Amino acid sequence: MTFPYYHSSLSSTLRAADLGCAAHFRGIKYGIIPRRFANPEPLADYPAELDCTTYGPRCPQTQVDVTYLLRIPPSISIAPEPEDEFGCLNLDVMVPKTALAEGRRLPVVVWIHGGSQAVTFGSAASGVCDPTAIVNDSIRLGKPLIFVSVQYRLNIFAFGGESNEQNLALKDQLLALKWVQHHISALNGDPENVTLAGESAGAVYCHALLVMKAPAKQAILSSGSLYLSPPQPAERASLLRDSVKRQLEELGGFDLRSASAQLLVDALTRTGIQSWFLQTEPSLDRWWEETGISKSVLLSHVQDESVIWRNGILAAGTDSIINAFSLAEDDSDELKNMYQIYSNRSSAATTGALDFINDYRFVLPIIKMACLWRDHGKRVFQSLIDEANPWQPSSGAHHAVDLLLLFGGFDMSASPGAEEIGQKMRERWIKFISGEDPWPSESSGVFGPHGRFEELDDVQMRTRRRGSHLMKLDGMDSVRTDRVFSALAAGRVSLSN
Q: Is the pTM of this model over 0.90?
């Protein structure tokens, strides 16, 4: 069934998918790409009638099975998503139908999906980040909200062909936020009450957008920040770009501009590049000191973030791990002792390397960001996600498991605890989006294990994580610990873990 709605600022009748309590306006273009690696431009005009019942295309990309990391059973099928280099700037808007009828201004969530800045991991179209459960629960709780999911450029298409063509994904996302500012009020959304949210690479982008003073009242950063993937200088960007150029040359003398989108994807596949990064620019200078104009932030991480490096660390071997930790120089011995990095304990060294990545790039950054935001007089809420994967509990609370729990897009009845935690997460997230405290700000909200929700103080939180390790890491020279992380992690991340 379709739901027709006249959108006054677009001067267009939008035909949405009718989901009962909500209308889902899918595949609305928010911008155009005039040519490859060009800055995005707003769409000048919309047709008198617009079919918004089907999802729009995503950016061309190498193929990644999103069910692998998430342990989604093969019996649950994920529909293939169309791809279009020049048509990928589109968004989906889910709106409670009562809001459209009543004219009530609702808070708005703008969701930036993850995927290592390389692929689409967590779109509404895939079902992984289908916001239906969140919107329906918001209606049930009497706190209705609007949910916007954004598609944007990825991998080399976002990276740019030259040093002056960079960070195109951020520019796409800023344009999407401008679209929300200009047009969400016609769907009875409040442009002054926007929560910017993302997971993993999506959280990296959200952090960057906050630093750039994007128009968002508050933010939710899940399993990621600029500490995870800091902006890199032009020299390093050139190395990554050159690896793609070499593959294009071998494929038939093509270059970044003349190659078809499919040839670029073929070249990307041949390079083996699994993740990308933002490039330095003035608006991101001293990003670690900035909080932007937002007033509140919710920061969360799962228990086992570093699982996406597991296969890479295993393949590296004990000698490589020891050599990486030796780069800490004067801090090397202490680091090795902290994380059990010993030549005669290969299993312990592998586990220790993953623990270090988890602590240094996920948990410690949340502590630093929470302190910074509080120092700026802003509201801060911290969350730990410790509920295990619903289909394979032995995989634990791994990276991206929070997407399964929060969005509840698949049948998780095999794990009543996971279903219970998903419900509790949605209720607390909805409270935050509505401007309320999801729990006391001096506590951390902990979801799981076994379906339990707890509020823990700092001392209790440190028992859930490696509290003494985090304190010692924070006191070490970050230049040295950055070297350790780079030697361990570079080129070894994969969503197929």
A: yes
